[in-house]
Design goal:
Elements lengths: L3 E5 L4 H12 L3 E6 L23 E5 L5 H11 L3 E4 L6 H6 L1 H23 L5 E7 L22 H20 L2 E7 L2 E2 L8 H13 L6 E3 L5 E2 L2 E2 H13 L5 E4 L5 E2 H11 L8 E3 L17 H7 L7 H24 L4
Parallel strand pairs: 1-2, 1-4, 2-3, 4-5, 5-6, 6-11, 7-10, 8-13
Antiparallel strand pairs: 9-12
This protein binds NADPH dihydro-nicotinamide-adenine-dinucleotide phosphate and guanosine-5'-diphosphate-rhamnose.
Length: 338
């Protein structure tokens, strides 16, 4: 029988890769899309077919903060699996919009769990909660694993900790198949342009073709465990196929600084990052997470999951993609129609 899944955050980086994966596996995929005055579906446009065709991808308007509509949708679709990826996911922005971040990240997750609890009375449903390494914050143990205590440092991380615990509570209290994936940073050529890796690869490409001269960044000494998003959505799926609901860290087990990532990307283009990168304190955070390094041995042992793309390869994929994007931008700028 065809399995069905509902993805919140389907228009985001992870949502788009997960949709590809699930469609490839034969799933019927439903996505929650926020209404906006301009289209927000660029990352999944290549997968979407007209509703009048036999497409296995269906989009529905909705918002994580609208619990009633979300419940109605879940009861109507009756998905086998729900992947809750929707979030105000930018840590720096969460300081500017703490309340809104809590509503989407914290209350939004609760709304998903409540909807699943109601559906689960009649039909088994599994829930994946997109938890984050940011929950470790000012880390109390290195490397971080499933048993490492949380010590969140931002409004975003506090909201994710709330969502994490509610997921565990619904599993224990209501016997709901609800699992947390505690994912360390994962990036791609589809990463939002204000996250640091993509900001760097976008700028480096534009600098290479002469469209800009400088790149302004914040803290270059922060260290992150960066993987490739395509590897990580496979891990999300495996978490829900496991024999029992549980919580898993997904990470590469290697940490590098923002400065290292800059050096790597600029070198791949024959440039020296020190000639172009300048510090702008506006990108500093009120509290910084200095170092994240994940231990994903539990996922390896129980799910057979490992991150397969190393940082050099990730940087190469993103840098090449963004160089080509910059070349097209440059061409469009200089092209004079006859
Ligand atoms: P993105 O920021 O790329 O995507 C976020 C998605 O959430 C978008 O589809 C966005 O819609 C949607 N969204 C935002 N607010 C709402 C709302 N109120 N109601 C419904 N949908 C909403 O994030 P990623 O794909 O990178 O991350 C996916 C999830 O994983 C997030 O929850 C993130 O916090 C978490 N995570 C990410 C990690 C990473 O390194 N990428 C690591 C660990 C956890 P729109 O397109 O309209 O903005
Ligand atoms: P992060 O990712 O906060 O780890 O959250 P981000 O790429 O925003 O920052 C990583 C590190 O780089 C430093 N930094 C800058 N960051 C941004 N965005 N812009 C800059 O100019 C800049 N300069 C330096 C930051 O201070 C930070 O230390 C991501 C998100 O995807 C979350 O949703 C997810 O939960 C975590 O990863 C795991």
């Amino acid at each position: 029988m065809t399995k069905s899944a509902l993805i919140t955050g389907i228009t985001g980086q992870d949502g788009s890769y997960l949709t590809e994966l699930l469609l490839d596996k034969g799933y019927e995929v439903h996505g929650l899309v926020r209404r906006s005055s301009t289209f927000s579906t660029e990352r999944i446009d290549h997968l979407y077919q007209d509703v009048h065709t036999e497409s296995r991808l269906r989009l529905h308007y909705g918002d994580l903060t609208d619990g009633q509509a979300l419940t109605n949708l879940v009861l109507e679709i009756e998905p086998d699996e729900i992947y809750n990826l929707g979030a105000q996911s930018h840590v720096r922005v969460s300081y500017d919009q703490p309340n809104y971040t809590l509503q989407t990240v914290g209350v939004g997750a609760l709304n998903v769990l409540e909807a699943a609890r109601l559906l689960n009375k009649n039909k088994e449903v599994k829930v994946y909660q997109a938890s984050s390494s940011e929950m470790y914050g000012d880390v109390l143990e290195t490397p971080q694993k499933e048993t490492t205590p949380f010590n969140p440092q931002s409004p975003y991380a506090c909201a994710k900790v709330y969502a994490y615990h509610q997921t565990v509570n619904y599993r224990r209290g209501y016997d709901l198949f609800a699992s947390n994936g505690i994912l360390f940073n994962h990036e791609s050529e589809r990463r939002g342009e204000t996250f640091v890796t993509r900001k760097i690869t976008r700028a480096a490409g534009r600098i290479k073709v002469g469209l800009q001269e400088k790149l302004y960044l914040g803290n270059l000494d922060a260290k992150r465990d960066w993987g490739y998003a395509k590897d990580y959505v496979e891990g999300m799926w495996r978490i829900l196929q496991h024999s029992e609901a549980d919580d898993f860290v997904l990470a590469t087990g290697r940490t590098e600084s923002v400065r290292d990532f800059c050096r790597l990307v600029f070198e791949q283009l024959g440039l020296n990052y020190e000639d172009h990168v300048e510090i702008d304190p506006r990108y500093f955070r009120p509290a910084e997470v200095d170092l994240l390094l994940g231990d994903a041995s539990k996922a390896k042992d129980k799910l057979g999951w490992v991150a397969t793309t190393d940082l050099e390869e990730l940087a190469r994929i993103m840098t090449q993609h963004d160089l080509e994007l910059a070349q097209r931008e440059s061409h469009a700028k200089t092209f004079v129609p006859n």
